[in-house]
Amino acid sequence: MIDRRTTRPSPLLMIAAFVAVYLIWGSTYLAIRVAVETLPPFLMAGARFLLAGLLLYGWTAARGASRPGRRAWIAAAIVGALLLLGGNGGVVWAEQRVPSSITALLVASEPLWIVLLDWLRPGGKRPQPLAALGVLLGFGGVALLIGPAVLQGSGTLSFISPLVIVLAALCWAAGSLYARSAPLPASGAQASAMQMLIGGFLLLLAGLGTNEMQRFASTTISLRSALAVGYLVIFGSLGAFTAYAWLVTHTTATRASTYAYVNPVVAVLLGWALLSEPVTPRTLVAAAIIIGSVVIITLSRPASEVAPAVPELPSATEA
């Protein structure tokens, strides 16, 4: 088998792939915020992932991918439930109340959870001192970002919404760890498509279970919300996936995983520039601490370690 990492791809193609992953995935938080302005969150997310999953699954079938077995579907269901229902579902629900910039920074705590869960699981790996320092700094930044007023039950943000985002990041971390050893298809694209199909179906059930259909009316959907959903399907779930899948086979895991601390910066800048979301000194300090902690954790990993999964797309590590 030829190792594609030994070849030297075009520098322009490499730059384009990084720019796509940085900007597109960094902008999905803003797109979600716009989409839920006039669309029910769970139904919107469910339709988005079902459509993206159908397109991606059809593409893999056309390329000759074998039909996945029962064990693969069960594994995809578990990962899809954790990453999409628990992870993305928590984010889209919370973004009805929480600015996209704050959401992105709270989601950036996912690598912190991965370190903790990887340590606490049976036979887990104790974090290196540098990684442990990164975890402590990161959760300190999260507490600073949420603020003492919110932690005490008051303030401009309710306690529930930020907590849901932090729990969503925990779900992403758990799903990412499980996906590393789950009996998923060898094709990362097929595995992602299966998870999107199941996760999208579960999100639709969540929407129906929370009576979102009673609040849904096609006449109230704004054009910009509809365009945001289209952007999430085409660019967020498909375009950036292609770029990331290419990156993880043509560069190191450490370099590919730099999205984890670039995406929040992009989200903060876009939220401020396009939605006039406030950026306070406390937000900037908390952002620096959280992103710095992710950098520390990333640098503490062995160079050969597989790049982490991306919150906006399940099982990117399997691509």
Q: What percentage of amino acids are in beta strands?
A: under 5%
Fraction of residues in helices? 55-70%
Number of helices, where a helix is a run of at least 4 consecutive DSSP H or I residues? 13
Chain-averaged pLDDT: 85
> Which structural class matches the secondary elements?
mainly alpha
Number of domains: 1
Radius of gyration: 19 Å
Major beta-sheet overview: none
Overall geometric form: globular
Q: Tell me the distance between the termini.
A: 16 Å
Number of strands: 0
Give start-end ranges of low-pLDDT stretches: 1-6, 306-319
How do the strands and helices of this protein lay out in sequence?
Layout: H1 11-35, H2 41-62, H3 70-94, H4 100-107, H5 110-120, H6 129-146, H7 148-151, H8 160-181, H9 188-209, H10 223-247, H11 253-256, H12 259-275, H13 281-300
Q: In summary, what is this structure?
A:
The chain is an all-alpha fold.
